[in-house]
Amino acid sequence: MEMQSQKKSVNIGGLEIGKGSPIRIESMLKTPVTDIDGCRQELKTLKLEGCELVRVAFPEMSCLQSLKALLEISEIPIMADIHFDAKLAKAALEAGCMAIRINPGNMPKGGLADVVRLAKEKKAVIRIGSNSGSLNNVQLEQAMGNKAKALFIAVQEQVKILEDMGFDDIILSSKSTSIAETINANLLVSRHFPQYPVHIGMTEAGAIPEGLIKSAAGISLLLMQGIGDTLRISLSAPASEEVRAGYALLRSLGLRKRGVEVISCPACGRRRLDVSKLVEEIRPALKDLPDGTVVAIMGCEVNGPREAMDADIGVAGTPNGVVIFKKGEVVGHLGEEEIEKIGSLFKDML
């Protein structure tokens, strides 16, 4: 794709983002940075789920020692999230953050110049961008009320500030609570700045399930147009849920294969087993299966091997238990009293 071939790559603590790299999954700590034990546990959970970049709110200088402690213990690259205060951005870089998220337009020029000089020296990355809550009246007037265009104008202003200072290790972001505004803004951003990696997501998407639905709808439309080098599914839920959802979305689009994909029928009056219950019962065992494995859980022989023939392994309910199948071919049977063995059987079959 032409857009991808022109794109540069940026490096955050060894994590490559952009040209030639997988689409990265990120999240943000929900725990205040001052709660070191809470942050340590959250980081551990995120690492296990496969989080590749974590954003951390750095609201005031009194949090600096906590941020330093976090940088020492985190196995995931950290991006400090900063608003307005150039001194905070500089402090985060001096503490060892290899990435910061700022709005250059909200910082005094002299302070921003110091931040950019330090970022160059440290070879750090700066993420800039806009969201629907940060647009000012001038940007909206220039866009004649078109919020998507206003989001793009805000990004354009920030890019110019950094480029004029000779800095281009940049990630761009443009988010809204509106799917249409987010998509249209990112189309403009990607068209005008094809050289820069883009972070995508829906801002304030909501709780589960609404937030999942909204995020999947917006993000997938962007990804299928080749837009997006890193993403966050923002949810009013634990950060680990954001990471799991991110990988599930990429799996469903065929863009990454981390984890196991479960396909299951919705169940109906023909079902021979409780599909939803069985899915949850065998889910712990699925973590031991190779990345990219497709597992099918089907309620009856109608939805069984034939409809799920592309699955690597699966089960379908029968009058007397279940059949086990592999790539659509039946390879075994289990009686009702043996159904709890399904998880271990799957592992042995691969």
TrEMBL record:
Cofactor: [4Fe-4S] cluster
Broadest EC class assigned to this enzyme: oxidoreductase
GO biological process: isopentenyl diphosphate biosynthetic process, methylerythritol 4-phosphate pathway; terpenoid biosynthetic process
Glycoprotein listed as a keyword: no
Pathway: Isoprenoid biosynthesis; isopentenyl diphosphate biosynthesis via DXP pathway; isopentenyl diphosphate from 1-deoxy-D-xylulose 5-phosphate: step 5/6
Residues annotated as domain IspG TIM-barrel: 8-246
Binding of [4Fe-4S] cluster, residues: C265, C268, C300, E307
Keywords: 4Fe-4S, Iron, Iron-sulfur, Isoprene biosynthesis, Metal-binding, Oxidoreductase
Annotated NCBIfam families: ispG_gcpE
Family as reported in the entry's similarity comment: Belongs to the IspG family.
Protein name: 4-hydroxy-3-methylbut-2-en-1-yl diphosphate synthase (flavodoxin)
Gene field: ispG
